[in-house]
Every structure is written in structure tokens, then in C-alpha cells.
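Lecture 7 notes: from sequence to structure.

We start with a single chain of 407 residues. Read the sequence below before looking at the structure.
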Amino acid sequence: TRLRQALLNYTGNAVKFTERGTIFLRAKKLEEHGDEILVRFEVQDTGIGIEPDQLSSLFETFEQADASTTRKFGGTGLGLAITRRLAQLMGGEVGVESEPGQGSTFWFTARLGYAQAITPVAPSAGVADAEKELRTHYAGARILLVEDNAINSEVACELLRDVGLVVDTAENGVEAVAKVRASAYELVLMDIQMPEMDGLEATRVIRSMTGPTANNGDLPILAMTANIFAEDRQACLEAGMNDFVAKPVEPESLFATIIKWLPERKAVDAVETGSPSVLPRTGEQDSANAASPDVKPGASLINPQALIRVFGNDAAKHLDILRKFIAQTEDIVAAFDTACEQRDAEHVSFQAHKLKSSARTVGADALADLCRTLELAGRDADWTGIDGLHPQLRPDMERVKDYVSGL
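Now the structure, written as C-alpha cells:
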């Protein structure tokens, strides 16, 4: 996850500042000691380059080589500060070599260990046919969605109900255990980080349950997680989970994974299951909903593709979700402020994770990146990092709020 984020940050900048030319990505092994290697990753472009006197401040929080680039290209320079933080977490460093008009080479190093690769099992259906297959062969299947984030829960519920699945919800592990004990489900989608009881503990309890409705040894439980570290996945498997669904949710990936684990059933008419009529997600709706909200100044605060992937070009639904996101986040930011005042690093990490998750779902990617860095700093009780970035959280949130208010 850290490597991907760091490389995306560098590559995104390279694309942004290279109007035409070439971009190279490289990985070089610098050292090897036993099971550990030091790798240097580079992203080289042939773009506008950077003046020598501006290089030293590039990796400082919210610094850019030239403030005018914000007006032309967008962004705040946060990606480079995040990359420095990610490299430090991997025992490495960052740097840049550049010449004005000739391009730049941004690099970072990371100390990595050899580990057994986790190879995902190919889904049983092509992603293009996943929705059709669910409606045809799995309509009426009863699923429990365990998710404490209201925005993520609403998005996932809408996706699942649109393809004819019957969805119950739980907000934490305690509720999930109670619902599995009382009812028979064919599959559980389980978030990992939740209050009261997390997803790992809830899964362990479900697997240990006995009783008239307990098919719990065979009940598919799929982890919904943004963490793809090998150790996180191993913890999920050891708790008794069967597979993983990445967050933020991609419809095709979600459907394909569900198909892999749901027992096939006879087709059930959508009216019988109480599911709404399904509209296409490819922009074929009525012309009244045929476009996303008009692009306005500051639109880079929200990546419209995030919601288009889920709801197609239904602009009214996009706006509804964005407004619910704004309403939800005030309490999260307030809780984050309180955790900082109380010097509670664990809750700093938890609240940052919570805001990051919903921000990523609605496409507020810059805000999500900031929250991700704060989440990692909280996990490490790095108060220098937390205190350095905390003052930016509320202003960034206010900018997103102002943008949504203007839609």
C-alpha cells in the first residue's frame, strides 16, 4: 500500500507537469543483507523542471516550487510530503534531481523484506458480466453488511440492492454477532476497524457460535478493507475470514468476489425481493440525469469519477451522497480535534481512518491523502507529524464543504 501510494504521488505529478514527452518508472536494488533489501524507486519525466533554489523545500508540507503552479495545475504539494512520510515509514529517504526545462527525477528508497506473495484467486465471472450474473442467479440472497461508516454503508447497500440482493446492516461487531445469531445469512461483508468490537473479533465470535441458525463454519465472511499489507490479510484469514473486498468499493470487483462465494440460487423476480428497478451505470439514464454537476472552480477537490463508477451519471444521487458526507464529517473532525487535545494517538488514528474512508468513497482524494498520513502518524504515536498536519485538516474540510455547498 505504501509503495503504491508513493509511486502514484510521484507519477501523478510527472503526468501533471509533462505536457508532452516521456515518463520512466524504475526500481533498482541498492543493497541486500540477508532477508532485507534496499530498493530505490524513481519517476523521471521530461516536463517543466524545477529551479535549483526551490528544490530544498519541495518535500515540506504544502510547499510547491512555484505558487503559480497551483493556479495552473491544481493541488497543494501535499503529495510530496506524504511520500516523504511513507518512505520514512519504510526506512528510506526521498530526493529529487531536476533541471529547468529538462525535466525531473523524483526518487525514494525503501527497506523491504522478502515475503510469501498472496495471489488473488481469479473471480468466476468477467467483470463486465458480474451484475447480470448476480441478477440472474443470485437475486434474493440475504447478505449482512457490517460497516460503521454511514457513507460507505449507503453506497454499498445501494450497489447490492440494485442487483437484487437483500441487505441487512450492522454498525459494529456487537450488532453483527447478534444478527448472525438471530438470522440466517448467505454471506457477510465485514469492515475491520469499528468501535465496540472490530471485524476480526466479530468473525472469531461468529465462527465459534453454535445453535439452530449456526452454519457459521461455512458462512462466507469477506473482509472490507483498504489495508492490503500481507500481515493485515493474514490476520483476517487467521480470524476465519474467507476473502477480501477492497475499499473504496469498486462495483465490478465487489460483485465478482460475491459471486465467488455465494451459493447459486434460482432467479427471483426483482419485485419479489423488494429490489428497485435497476438503472444502467453507464450514462444511459434520462437526459435530466445525463451529466455530473457542472465543473466549477475548485472541482479538483472532488474527483467525479469516484461516484460515477458507483452511480453512473446520476447527478442528483451524487449531490445527495456529497451532502450526506459533509453532514457526517463535522462530528468526525470534532472527535479528531478532541483526540489531539487529549494526546490520544489511538483515537487520532481511528478518526483519521474513518474520515479517510468516506472521503475516498466520494472522491475527495486530497483530503483522503491527508487523513491517511494522519492515520499512519497516529498509529505510530508520531506527535510531530500529527501536530504538523492537524492544522490543515479543518481548512481542507471547509474547502470541500464550500465546494459542495456551491453545487
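The two ends are 33 Å apart (CA to CA). Keep this in mind for problem set 3.
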